[in-house]
Amino acid sequence: MTITATRSTELDQHRELNADETAVKSVRARIAEAGVEYVYYQIVTLTGRVVGKVVPARHLPRNIEHGIQAHPGVVADLQVDGSGAMLAGSPERGECVVLPDLDSFGVLPWDTRTGFFFCRMYEPDHAPGDDGGRPVPIDARGNLRRVHAGFTARTGLEMRSGIEPEVTWEVPGLSTEHVPGTPHTMYHLEHMERLRPVYQKVIEYGRALGLDMIEGNCEDPGQLELNWMFDHADRTADRLILHRQICRRVAREAGATVSFMPKPADDRFGNGCHHNISLWDGERNVFVDPDVPGLHLTQTGKDALGGILTHAAASTAVMGPTVNSYKRYLHTGQFAPLEINWGMDNKTCAVRMPANGRLEIKSPDSMVNPYLSHAVLLAAVEDGLTQGIDPGLPRTTGTGVPSPFGSLPLTLKDALDLFAVDQAVARGLGSELADLFLRLKTREWERFCASVTDWERRMYGAEGC
After folding, report:
1. Are 46 and 68 found together in one domain?
2. Angle separating helix axes 299-310 and 370-387, nearest 10 degrees
3. Per-residue pLDDT tens digits for 349-408
4. CA 357 to CA 296: how far, in whole Å?
5. What keyword terms does UniProt attach to this protein (predicted)?
6. For position 31, which CATH number holds?
7. Which carries the bigger pLDDT value, residue 333 or residue 18?
8. How far apart are the first and last CA of the chain?
9. In a domain, 5, yes or no
């Protein structure tokens, strides 16, 4: 009798991970200890929104094996193209399996009856042909895991990152206006005091959800930047999503409004989300040579930096993913980059080296999808390592020499045009995810071009004639 071997799919492998007795016992113990009754099974869309389903906690055994079902259209926020067709799939397309990662389990500190998992998406076992059980390529979180694992397999290195998320708060009783000529609120502790109910609660909830909160400050009236310790890039991406969820919760509790808009007003600082990255071989940071004194970057670090600079223009579509993003770059004098260059602790540069061991990429803003941005950075870094790309000399104060890497694009449309032809960036996202992102954001640009804005009314309306 001939026995046909059953093909093990990536969905099967994920199920095997979820069958680990130690991991399951750990989750069950946390559910029992906190009194969790409901669990969110959540995925993240291309625009960074959190979607999913809620399931009673007593169904945990079934869900860790079978997950939940979801239509892939949610990945693109159910957006449609100009003809009305869905950008991700179609109404006739079957649903996907959304399977939780057990190590991502958490309990909401503001309601301990509710827990959550981050999940990855797969085609169901019954999908036609060889599709059954394969990862859904347009799942940005799953894509980052695969890209990072592939990067590590080829280079022996992993990326660790820390991010600096800036957000704008409108709090009752707090003026967010700055009068020109008066002292600015940057680092002003009196302004921090007025935001104390906000930042204390954000830090409290962050610590409860595993974010090792380290420092924070206010740079503009109403703007807060609260940071946590760097970690493996995959975990950092999850934590940024959690941070945004925390901020929205705190805003509801405080009767405040929180905005992640990259450029919230003409006279306000933009909201950046700088990515600080490093490469590690085990517990050795390969950007640092312990035998070299002073501020320096190893050859490996320079190669990685060369890749980042080479692909910075095309990556901007991901790092600045909204129409509004480009107003932050164009508002000069507010620490946002425009020229593609690098410098040793130079805040004017697109990539800054503030200390040994890390590179600070300043183009990402507060609307960035961290799964996409880290995947693109991994692809750019690997290209730099493979090609040995020279980043050139660091920019010094007063240097007027134009950067050989050019400037960042000035509109979302310009950025998308560059994104569409950069092969390294496409490798970071994969062809299907890159194509969906391009179509989704092109449609966003088209809708913006068709919209009449307040600026146009002021400029060309009755009072402007």
Report:
1. yes
2. 120
3. 999 999 999 999 999 999 999 999 999 999 999 999 999 999 999 987 555 677 899 999
4. 8
5. Ligase
6. 3.10.20.70
7. 18
8. 88
9. no
